[in-house]
Amino acid sequence: MTRPVGNRLPSAKEWRLNLYLSEHDPDTTARIVLDTGDNVLESCAEARRNPYDRDVPEIGDELAAGRALIALGRELVRAAAGDIKAMGAPEATPPTPLWSPRE
């Protein structure tokens, strides 16, 4: 649980995330735009249906969106690492990835 530091009151923030999906059979593309109020981050990813598989658009949507979210998460972590470095903090050893680079 987070507690206020000193006299500083806890604050709530709202970040806006828009997810855009487009399908051009057999490809599905996901584009995510995250507006933090201070910065705007964007990520894109694709999913491609094997021509021998049944056409189930929801699967392409889920794969493309999931991949774009993973890419956005990596971008957020890189941004935080850059901010930490800019503050003069010593570099930490990066954690072991939870997933392989190509998913």
From TrEMBL:
<dbReference type="Pfam" id="PF08962">
    <property type="entry name" value="Rv2632c-like"/>
</dbReference>
<dbReference type="InterPro" id="IPR038070">
    <property type="entry name" value="Rv2632c-like_sf"/>
</dbReference>
<protein>
    <recommendedName>
        <fullName>DUF1876 domain-containing protein</fullName>
    </recommendedName>
</protein>
<dbReference type="InterPro" id="IPR015057">
    <property type="entry name" value="Rv2632c-like"/>
</dbReference>
